[in-house]
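Form 7-S
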Amino acid sequence: PQPRLLAAPTATSAGPDTAPQPGSLRTALSMPTMGIKCTSYLKYLVMKQKCFCLLLIFTVYSLVDPVFFRILEGLIPMEKCHLSKGFKLKPGNHADNHLDYWTRTDVQTCTKWNAPIIWDGTFNAEAYDEMYKKRNIVIGLTVFAVGNYLDMFLERFLLSADEHFMPGFRVIYYVFVDDVAKLRGISVRLSGRGVLRDVAVERQIRWQDNSMSRMKLIKELIETRVKNEADYIFCFDVDQHFSGRFGTEALGDSVALLHAWFYRRPRFLYTYETDPQSTAYMQSRGDFYYHAAVFGGTWQSVRRLTEACHRGILQDKQRKVEARWHDESHLNKYFWLHKPTKILSPEYCWDPAIGWRTDIHIFRLQWVKKQYGASRQVV
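Output:
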């Protein structure tokens, strides 16, 4: 029999081995691609909605429960120390050269201008004490207790300082009071390690003026007494108490303190002075936000600081303006222009109201619960 001839395939009768046309290939490929894109877009919308809902929940919780907000705030990372291992801050065998900047990777341990930030675990307390005992130094402490602040806070402050402030070293307490008789009643309870000097002052009508006048009074005290009696001077608010070692590791030429409420916050939330008419004006150009509750250094350095702040306060009065946070605003401006050589972490002045933080291993000085209605009352 004759073999059967197979007909040539046509476009309408293409078999399984027939090559598809270009147009049909694009259509076939585009269908799953479009499906993937649609699915991805739907997932994006769902995630966007979830993120919005989470943000809304966080915002509501932050408003209703500030503790929740502070926990989140504590998760904001800090900058890391840029110094290489083996870096020596000072010549010779100074105790600052033994600081371990890299043992605390959870916090910032140095500044851009190479000043150390003192945290628990970064220093050797024995090395500092040994070095300063050879120098036979004396440390001064100033504190203001005027009006109700004297009755409410001074006794606990001095008794706790007697135990924890610069242990093993000679300390002179310069206490500014408007009632010297009450101070003498407290002094008999001190151990005798320190010497107490009373400085009589007048109480101002406004608590703000009491706060701002201390810069002038500290400057005058340094010029008349401190420079002849002490090597270093630290200035404290009275409404706080010592609860752990506040020792020689804190000593330096110019010492500032990171504010416990701001050290984890981004810079745009710092409450610097924003009035251009004030000499404390700095908008948002600072390095850190420093707390005026603690500052110190050599008496020469503290004299320059208090003199500059007092001058700025006087100029503001002439212009009929007042900085938002009074002497603290001027202190932040000063430390921005004149960088501190050492910075203390919030361990050195902690507010328990902030709550638990993983990076705070010890409370060396703690705020007393604020009672502004009673403490700032003018009688």
